[in-house]
Design goal:
Blueprint: E1 6-12, H1 28-43, H2 48-53, E2 60-67, E3 76-87, E4 90-99, E5 105-114, H3 128-137
Antiparallel strand pairs: 1-3, 2-5, 3-4, 4-5
Length: 145
């Protein structure tokens, strides 16, 4: 996949994820977005559990999914992701989900997350997660507040 997307995981569609037509139910794509960003962070060297233990929370504040083609029971799907936008107070992940067997794009989408402390207060200035993501994505820009 192009444009700085990283392969975060491959999963096989379970029967329970399909509807009566044998097609993956639409809400499951949002679950797959979560798997993608969790595995991206793990692949970058620090998982969500560690960040939460340090007091950082990343509540979803916006989500979008565009369905392009159907995934079906037993398909292996590839979960691709990247950081699309980063500010001290928010992060936006973009996703592409593709079928492994033919590379067909199944869905695209994004989620935006607030960067808060454990009490739900939004970070306004630099914090360790923000600096870490900057180092991971190789962004040399000045911190935004």
């Amino acid at each position: 996949m192009e444009d700085n997307y990283a392969l975060a995981a491959k999963i096989r569609v379970r029967y329970s994820e399909t509807d009566k037509m044998g097609i993956v139910y639409n809400a499951n794509y949002l679950d797959w977005f979560e798997v993608t960003r969790t595995e991206l962070c793990r692949g970058w060297g620090k998982d969500y559990k560690e960040w939460e233990a340090e007091g950082l929370m990343l509540p979803v504040v916006e989500a979008y999914c565009r369905y392009k083609n159907s995934a079906r029971y037993d398909d292996v799907v590839e979960l691709w992701g990247r950081v699309a936008d980063l500010k001290a107070y928010s992060i936006k992940f973009e996703y592409r989900i593709a079928r492994e067997s033919d590379g067909k794009l199944l869905a695209t989408g994004w989620t935006r997350h607030g960067c808060t402390d454990a009490e739900g207060r939004l970070y306004r200035g630099e914090h360790p997660f923000y600096k870490w993501v900057l180092s991971v994505i190789g962004n040399e820009r000045e911190p935004q507040t």
